[in-house]
Design goal:
By secondary structure, the chain is an alpha/beta fold. It is about 35% helix and about 20% strand. Belongs to the flavin monoamine oxidase family.
Length: about 450
């Protein structure tokens, strides 16, 4: 087995791990990055599928994502705006297709009032939440002991209003049913984006895309590190001495043994248990990590000969809490004359369609898209489903979140070092939580902490 000596070993070549590695390298520290996959990027992945360039993982840039925007500028990457010209589509419980502009859905006046009222209440609560320490809110424990679904029920008896507000957190972000996570977890999700209003504003949260794909960020960061990035190297064991943490750490793969002063786990918390620790991690970490789980969403890409919906005066933006595909957007790739729609099937709906055959699932999803865009939506020239739940080194999307009561109970310990072991990923971020911006922020934070230690 090959032995390597370095200052810091990083497990995971996603945006967080590669940000850490570059920041430490620029400060004169030696680094080695061990990545289980045969590519860099983690949950960022731009790939060619049947001649179409698709962003299989994360892809959007919003104007508040300062860390990501700074990184794009530093790497010389350009962006382009998501197509949003035209009318949006909403489908009601009865299946009626309604066109609208702006952020508020075309629902009955009473329901509209309830939706606006809920957004105002949530914005007021979110303003009290520190995204880096939501557990510090005076009502944190109480908010963490009721589900977001239950909280909504205490605020309004209008089911359509509850479903639509719930959709933005449950289906669109945490990708879990609203009864499966707490009100506090929902408030953290909104606080990480600045406000709940930002989450319901598609033109804000899904503002721009990166030319060449967002995976360009980790690809270019890895390029700067050269041979320090080792692909196809899943870490099996981490060895350290709790009585003498200054003695360092050893990360062991099937063919490498990397000796370092520090190790950074730059991967989703659900993957921590894939590594054996000698000695075992402290009891607190074992318990905490069992209360974190990934959501589940299918990201559907449908490419057409032309963006036909634009000719019909549609923006491509579509929503419905009653549809299999609960949200969809024009996702046409820069420079490609064809049109691409991207849609999302989340949580229990995703469970359901994966019980179908591949063709049955495709037919059901395209049928749902056709309710928004018409019959032409049933006939893409390229069709692809991003299923991160089946990815061995991800196991879900978009990020890990706590079960009921877990955030108030364990949240303050998420980033705590364990001897020479540090933790960095978007799942642990405050601002930018579950986004690339959060991954970069966490990478910077951990790197700066190590440098401050000397």
């Amino acid at each position: 087995m090959e032995r390597i000596e370095t200052d810091v070993v990083i497990v995971g070549a996603g945006a967080a791990g590669l940000t850490v590695a570059n920041r430490l390298k620029d400060a004169g520290r030696s680094v080695v990055v061990l990545e289980a996959r045969d590519r860099v990027g983690g949950r960022l992945w731009t790939n060619d599928i049947d001649g179409a360039t698709l962003e299989i993982g994360g892809q959007w840039v919003s104007p508040d994502q300062d860390a990501l925007i700074e990184t794009l500028d530093e790497l010389g990457l350009d962006t382009y705006e998501r197509w949003r010209t035209g009318q949006n589509v909403y489908i009601s419980e009865s299946g009626e297709r309604r066109l609208f502009e702006g952020e508020i859905f075309p629902v009955p006046a009473k329901t509209e009032g309830e939706i606006v009222g809920l957004i105002e209440k949530l914005d007021a609560l979110v303003a009290e939440i520190d995204p880096d320490a939501p557990w510090s809110h005076p009502d944190a424990k109480a908010l963490d002991e009721i589900s977001f679904a239950h909280w909504l029920e205490t605020q309004t008896d209008d089911e359509e209003a509850r479903l639509n507000i719930g959709m933005f957190i449950a289906g669109a972000m945490l990708t879990k049913p609203a009864h499966a996570f707490s009100a506090l977890q929902a408030l953290l999700m909104a606080a990480s984006a600045g406000s709940f209003s930002n989450l319901v504003d598609a033109d804000f949260i899904l503002d721009k895309r990166v030319k060449g794909g967002l995976q360009q960020v980790p690809l270019l960061l890895a390029e700067r590190l050269g041979s320090a990035v080792k692909l196809g190297q899943p870490v099996r064991t981490i060895k350290w001495q709790p009585d003498a943490p200054e003695a360092g750490v050893v990360a062991v793969t099937d063919s490498l043994e990397v000796h370092a002063k520090r190790v950074i786990l730059a991967l989703a918390p659900v993957l921590y248990s894939r590594i054996s620790y000698e000695p075992a991690l402290p009891r607190l970490q074992h318990q905490m990590h069992q209360h974190l789980s990934m959501g589940f969403v299918i990201k559907v890409h449908a490419v057409y000969e032309t963006p036909f919906w634009r000719e019909a005066g549609l923006s491509g933006t579509a929503f419905s809490p009653y549809e299999l595909v609960h949200e969809a957007y024009d996702n046409s790739y820069d420079g490609d004359p064809r049109g691409t729609l991207v849609g999302f099937v989340s949580d229990e709906e995703a469970d359901g369609v994966f019980r179908l055959t591949d063709e049955e699932r495709k037919s059901a999803i395209l049928e749902s898209l056709s309710h928004y865009y018409g019959e032409e939506a049933k006939h893409p020239v390229v069709y692809y489903e991003s299923d991160w739940g089946s990815e061995e080194w991800t196991r879900g999307a978009y990020a890990a979140s706590f079960d009921m009561g877990g955030l108030a109970r364990y949240g303050a310990h998420l980033r705590e070092p364990v001897g020479p072991i540090r933790f960095a990923c978007s799942d642990l971020a405050g601002k930018g939580y579950q986004h690339v911006d959060g991954a970069i922020r966490m990478g910077r934070l951990v790197a700066d902490g190590i440098l401050a230690e000397g």
